[in-house]
Amino acid sequence: QAIFEFQTMVCELTGMDVANSSMYDGFTCLAEAASLAVASTRRSKVLVSKAVHPESRAILNTVADGQGYIVEDVNLTDDETSLVKLQGQIDKNTAAVIVQYPNFFGSIEDLAEIKNIADTKGALLIVSANPLALALLQSPGKLGADIVIGDMQPLGIPMSFGGPHCGYFSVSKKFMRKIPGRIVGQTTDEKGQRGFVLTL
User: Fold this and answer.
1) At 34, which helix (H) or strand (E)?
2) Cα four-point dihedral sign 153, 57, 170, 14
3) pTM of the full structure
4) d(CA 178, CA 67)
């Protein structure tokens, strides 16, 4: 039940349809999201904003090197992703555009416009979001995100010499069966009582 409630909270915060029962941390979630996009679209390029956390981008590059897809950085205008640069770099081989919300510098990216740019080439929008900020900001799901990931540490998990963390991973319904990790579902038993099961 605790895992089911966690998944429900993540969906409410992100505006997405489905969330898994957590992953190692938000940094590895980002790389998993990129891999899902590459596999789903059968394309081999991912665009990532330079306003995404540098440790996330480092892990993304490591995973991409192993899986054989290309990662290109998108430069900034002031402290936000440059929409002009993004339009110039996106093409028919782009699997996904990755941005952070709020970004590494604390600015709020224009997710709706970035989604519009991604849609022009059929690319997915992946958003790395701070769950604490999502209590105030418009949810990425309502602004068109296909995958929303992040780290639950801002909600108060103690650092403990660098860990543990808890990564959340949420998607729109069409990616439900491609989500990594596990999903807990709610059901009723033969007596009609509420129960919880490992669904996927």
Assistant:
1) helix 26-41
2) positive
3) 0.95
4) 17
